[in-house]
Write a structure and sequence with these properties.
Helix content: under 10%
Number of helices: 0
CATH architecture: 7 Propeller
InterPro entries: LEUNIG-like, WD40/YVTN_repeat-like_dom_sf, WD40_repeat_dom_sf, WD40_rpt
Organism: Nicotiana attenuata
Keywords: WD repeat
GO molecular function: transcription corepressor activity
CATH topology: Methylamine Dehydrogenase, Chain H
Shape: globular
Strand order of the largest sheet: 4-5-6-7
Order of helices and strands: EEEEEEEEEEEEE
Distance between the termini: 32 Å
Structural class: mainly beta
Number of domains: 1
Number of strands: 13
Protein name: Transcriptional corepressor leunig
Length: about 140
Amino acid sequence: MVFATSSFDRTVMLWDAAKPSNPFKSLVGHAEHVMSTDFHPTKAGLLSSCDSNDGIRLWDADEGDCKLIFKGGSRQVRFQPRFGNLLASSTGNVINIFDVETNSIQQKFKVRLSISGQACFKFLLCCNTVSYQNGLLFFDI
């Protein structure tokens, strides 16, 4: 099993859970501190990351190559559970929902509360509501 960590040294580190003493790969390219990472739920090796300068990168973790760079997330990135067609990101008081294939924003939510790194999906956010639970905002799209 492989896991990824974000770092203030502007890298994403890949680790083997069976041998966690040293990372086996470093993904370099972010302009600022890396704030969040998330693996795609079905495409092995596809990894998203965001930095504190709003930069989002999609990586081929197997090859160590950056496949796509775009703007719109400085706190957290999360792929849609089960399918991974969408990527949620948060920056300031905005949650963006990107289409992963077209690199286009499908939805943009502005909230009154500051988002403290918690843009996430809950089974693709059901019930057409916005709710606030335990410090998390949940949206239906």
